[in-house]
Amino acid sequence: MGEVILEMKDIDKSFPGVHALDHVSLDVRAGEVHALMGENGAGKSTLMKVLTGIYKKDSGSIKYLGKEVEFHNTRDAQAAGVVIVHQELNMVGDLTVAQNIFIGREPRKGLRIDDRKMIEDSKALFDKLHININPREKMSHLTVGKQQMCEIAKAISHNAKIIVFDEPSAALTEKEIEDLFVIIRDLRSQGMGIIYISHRMDEIKVITDRVTVMRDGGYVGTLITKDCTKEDIINMMVGRVIYEKPKEHSMVPEDAPVVLKVEHLTAGKMVQDVSFELKKGEILGFSGLMGAGRTETARAIFGADPKQSGDIYINGQKVEINSPEDAVKHGIGYLSEDRRRFGVVVGKTITENSTMAALDDYMKGPFIDKKKELDVTQKYIKELATKTPSADQLVVNLSGGNQQKVVIAKWLVKNSDILIFDEPTRGIDVGAKNEIYKLMNKLAQQGKSIIMISSEMTEIFRMSDRIVIMCEGRKTGELRIEEATQELIMDKATRQMD
Predict the structure, then answer these.
(1) What is the DSSP letter of 339?
(2) Which domain-ending residue is among 238, 271, 298?
(3) Do 15 and 85 lie in a common domain?
(4) Contact 75, 117 (CB under 8 A)
(5) Range of the domain at 398
(6) Are 26 and 8 in contact (CB under 8 A)?
(7) Residue 355 sits in the same domain as residue 489
(8) How many CB atoms lie within 10 A of CB 335?
(9) How many other CB atoms are there within 10 angstroms of residue 54's CB atom?
(10) Quick one: which of 47, 78, 358, 377 could link to 351 by a disulfide (CB 3.0–4.6 Å)?
(11) DSSP of 57-76, one letter per residue?
(12) Could you give the CA distance from residue 357 to residue 334 in angstroms, rounded to a whole number?
């Protein structure tokens, strides 16, 4: 590691009702990957938004390359060489990949935009990242994982000296994460300073040099990664010990009734002849690589995307689901992997979001029963340990993990019997993950049935009673948790048919 190129000292920031940063300090050296860790709501993203000019600090100082600076917006920060890859995607869906990467700084040939050069430059970035994305593709046609890789390519395209990665691997496959680490190591060897925000402990030990931990908006301490354990970091983050043990056997009786049966479901090339059963009280894990068709299968079952053929049975009765409204009527709730697009309305309050799917149950004549609505919202704020000053807080002001808790609350308020959790802990810290795991197990014990799509192998093994594996739109295997191994799953996830 080289000299200190960034020093943030005693940074303080408050919002109405929230002291988000309480005199936080952080320094980053040239040629260093510096982890910034803490539970959701600890202030990590807020600190980075202060650095990159999205928020104005209330007090404290920022020194960059030896000079005191204050960026007024992200364009100022980028021009100076400080770039952030956000946890939540900031791409324009109707533009192409290349247009998104170079938006506002397109290469020109005279007065016209040089589309050919823009596409060539985009392809060169993707080649460097070892990923196959068509620069001419519309951004809205890409999966969340590929959109995230485009964000990373966009950041790298700036002549940056500091890159902030805010949960860059949350929606990526193991192979994509490995490729990302190759790039990060290359950037580090060039003397770049990298701030790496992640909740994945194994990543932190592999890719970072130092770890700074925050808790409740304050600075807890900085550790040298190679000299500390995973347990040391977790204890600093949450102040308690958390155990992550795989599930050893199914918790579902052999004779448990089948609540959902899907037969020969086909919906475009990403869902081809998929069949499976879900039992009462079961957590059915869906595993596979990015692009395997797991999310597309869930969306077809939920009626969010049209199916071409196949049958769906609920409690033995064949049902027609042509829209999410149909699915909700039949007791199905869907927690999307992209919570900001499909899970919450960020401009509305926690209360409004929590009762959104069940509003008819909270009407008193032509009016909403505000007391009843507030009571149920507060119940789930407490049960899910959502960090918020009140139920009236706008969802946009919550951290990513707490936004996810609001999505979960929405379907709990609706009292859905079948819950589809698509990447339920994406971008969520280890403490909040543990709370959500406990909640999922509790729901299963109460007789709820859960389909859990996850790209994290440890999550699949910890939570699943059975595991369905998909590859390129087809179901390629099904395993009981007792017989499942990582090698077996990866074998089935990388071949088209058994």
Answers:
(1) I
(2) 238
(3) yes
(4) no
(5) 258-493
(6) yes
(7) yes
(8) 22
(9) 16
(10) 377
(11) -SEEEEEETTEE---SSHHH
(12) 11
